[in-house]
Write a structure and sequence with these properties.
The protein is of the alpha/beta class and 474 residues long. The protein is built from 18 helices and 18 strands. α12 links the parallel β16 and β17. Bound molecules: zinc ion.
């Protein structure tokens, strides 16, 4: 679909850019900003070039109801396209009077894509299609990617990419809900935490042997390393494996070997945290805890995850007391979908050292003051919050407000295979949406180190590396 050229056009520049899924997130409130020269006009269509889908084209700040409005937005220098289904590859059609560089920028992804339009002469403009935009990292994205940092909130089962899901499903003879990676990804639209968990636990079933857990963990560690992670603390959900008959030892051994190899090969240090599923009984959690006792030298701590609403922390007070007495450190998911009171409960009753998510702390000023005073870390996960509709739009995410209020906020990826972004993508998404400065990004990176369970000597070393990196790049 081509827009009519401006009436005084002599030389037309026309291009159709097919934007890959990796660039265009397809989530409500998200968008793709297109910066282009004055006089350009822009439209977006579904890939089959059927009628323009009004839901696909959303200008910022006002949605254009016609191509006239779209052209007006383009003349202003920026155009914004709203959400589209993940299965749809958006297509942009651009026309202008002269050649200009066009920058495609997703507010959720670190990658920038620059396309230079080729001039076309004549009355019938030609079309240039770029199937695979060329990645181009801006200075801020490179800063975000390369600054040394730690990841403290990632579920290893949530790093299971569709390609590996299919491979392991085939290897282990497990029937799946999808037959191709694209089909799997197309299903990753969630109306909330519970909806996501259904697919997440279905995916877990392909994990059977120690080799599976090793490969899964290794794939994650390579990605984390590429995103500048120097240290990771990884969650796993033992009950989702042992309940299917996979021995606890198989799970731990596969993950542990990958962590050890990554430290040796990539220099990424790590910790392992076993999560209890709060939608299973406290009695089941106690069994998991007792099973874990012989692995205390491998498992640094315990956490609490899965469906939050209706499963308050207080139900697990005894489990956490026994865990602390056994020498495990403690964290808990709280204030993700559940209320701020769950955060207070997790601190008072479970006596946790960190709160995973903690988004709802924004609702309780007294709690905020306490979190700031006691420097309790919050391991926030922006893209997860967006995908699970914990926040309607990243621009409304409380991360920046809590950071400014003095809380020890960190950025993490949660279940990156399902939420379309690993560690650096989460930093980039929140940086773009909230306008974080380099100083903010550096503060988040420092927080990730001081909130970790690393020994103080390595913390000091990594903090010095952050300072050196910031100084060298300013
Ligand atoms: Zn989580």
């Amino acid at each position: 679909m081509l827009l009519p050229a401006p009436p005084d056009a002599v030389e037309l520049v026309v291009a159709t850019v097919v934007v890959g899924r990796g660039v265009f997130g397809g989530r409500a409130g998200d968008g793709l900003a297109v910066g282009c020269a004055d006089g350009a006009s822009v439209a977006a269509t579904p890939p089959d070039e059927s009628a323009l889908d009004p839901a696909l084209v959303v200008a910022d700040p006002q949605p254009p109801s016609s191509t006239t409005a779209a052209k007006a937005m383009a003349r202003a220098g920026a155009f914004r396209i709203g959400a589209s289904p993940r299965s749809v590859v958006p297509r942009l059609t651009v026309s202008a009077r002269r050649s200009f560089p066009m920058v495609l920028r997703s507010s959720s992804f670190a990658a920038y894509h620059r396309v230079t339009m080729e001039p076309r002469l004549g009355r019938s403009p030609s079309t240039v299609t770029q199937e695979a935009p060329v990645p181009d990292h801006t200075a801020m994205d490179a800063f975000i990617r390369d600054i040394p940092k730690a990841e403290l909130h990632v579920h290893i089962e949530g790093t299971l990419e569709p390609e590996m899901l299919l491979e392991l499903g085939e290897r282990n003879g497990v029937e799946l809900h999808c037959a191709s990676a694209e089909e799997c990804r197309a299903a990753y639209h969630f109306n909330g935490l519970q909806h996501f968990l259904g697919l997440y636990y279905a995916g877990v079933e392909v994990l059977v042997t120690a080799r599976d857990y090793y490969e899964l963990t290794t794939a994650y560690l390579r990605r984390a390393h590429a995103d500048g992670a120097r240290h990771v603390e990884v969650f796993f959900d033992p009950q989702s494996h042992t309940s299917r008959g996979v021995p606890f030892a198989v799970v731990v051994e596969g993950i542990r070997r990958a962590l050890v190899d990554a430290e040796r090969q990539l220099g990424v240090s790590s910790g392992l945290i076993m999560c209890f599923q709060r939608d299973r009984s406290p009695a089941s959690a106690i069994i998991a805890l007792e099973t874990a006792r012989p692995y205390r030298h491998i498992i640094a701590g315990v956490g609490l995850d899965s469906a939050e609403v209706g499963h308050p922390p207080r139900e697990f007070e005894d489990v956490f007391r026994v865990a602390r007495e056994a020498g495990f450190r403690t964290v808990a998911h709280a204030g993700e979908e559940g209320p701020a009171e769950y955060i207070t409960e997790a601190l008072d009753l479970l006596k946790v050292e960190r709160i995973d998510h903690g988004v709802r702390a924004i609702d309780d000023r007294t709690l905020q003051r306490r979190l700031a005073r006691e420097q309790i870390p919050l391991t926030m996960c922006p893209l997860s919050n967006l995908e699970l509709q914990v926040t309607p739009d990243l621009a409304q995410h409380p991360l920046k407000r809590l950071l400014d209020a003095g809380l020890r906020v960190t950025v993490n990826s949660d279940d990156p295979a399902y939420f379309d972004g690993y560690l650096a993508a989460n930093y980039a998404a929140v940086q773009h949406a909230l306008g974080l400065t380099r100083a903010d990004v550096a503060a988040l990176a420092r927080n990730s180190i001081t909130a970790s369970w690393l020994p103080s000597a390595r913390q000091t070393k990594l903090l010095a590396e952050i300072d050196a990196f910031v100084a060298a790049t300013s």
